[in-house]
Amino acid sequence: PAFIVVLIAISGLVAMTIVDAKSMLIPVEIPTGVTIIAFAGWLGQGFMPESRILRDSMPIPVASWTVTFAAVGMLLGLGVSRWLVSTGRLRHGFSDWNEFVKEGDDGSAYPHARREMLVECAFLIPGFAGAGLACVIAGLLGYTSSSVVCQPMTLLGGSMLGWIVGGGLVWGVRILGSLAFGREAMGLGDVHLQAAVGAALGWKVALLAFFVAVFIAILWAIGALILRRFATFFQREIPFGPHLAAAAILFVIARGPLVGTIDAFARGLQVAVESISGPLPEQGSTVDGKKKSVRMPPAELARPSDRR
What we know:
This protein is mostly helical and about 300 residues long. It folds into two domains: about 1-65 and about 150-255, no CATH class; about 65-140, no CATH class. It is about 65% helix and about 0% strand. It is globular.
């Protein structure tokens, strides 16, 4: 099941890249399908005999009972939000978009982006309420973070957590960027794409892939400036979705070299900081000799092992 999940995820990312690059839109059916298959696949993987043996080496991070309860609660809360929208109790965002933006425009003419972000924040409130209520229920039932989780729920919870982290990260950037600049910063298609990445590959990959995508976008922009005089393909604007997809695929096919590159970058950044402010305290101790938590290199987040 895990292999099928990863294979479907890559296929979906390629499909979303092609469609997004051509039409600047991501059909929600593609990431939704990837997400459903990821949830079902990781749940099914938990029933495989080898899963209990390989608990600390699973491709996605496992989840505790509390996290699993919170993830389920948030998904149920977002389901309530969808019901509120479908019944008219909560209005659709950007419902008057076509009144201001003509077909083919980039959306900069729309004057109410900040107002619509408040609508999207209202959409998220039931999700956070559901997560909080689920955590309370988990505590009352005795399912605490230290509880041993059965493998199927461990993996399903990890997949749900990845969906929340991936989608929540991009949605947060979308809301903050739109509030800051007064125009839609990122499309909801990017939110669905990164949520699907998290569901299939785990929250750690979804988190790091977002920042890797920024570097890919910068490299693409530089290359396009050089090559646009030779090919019209490089003269058109490319949305952020293909860069997100490329970063996620890189973590699948070249995780080792990519993790090493991120670690090297982090070490170089640390050396630069120490050259300015002086050496940092040794890992595992402080200046007064007291023990402290060990700093983890950023790329360690992308490693499959998630020991508890």
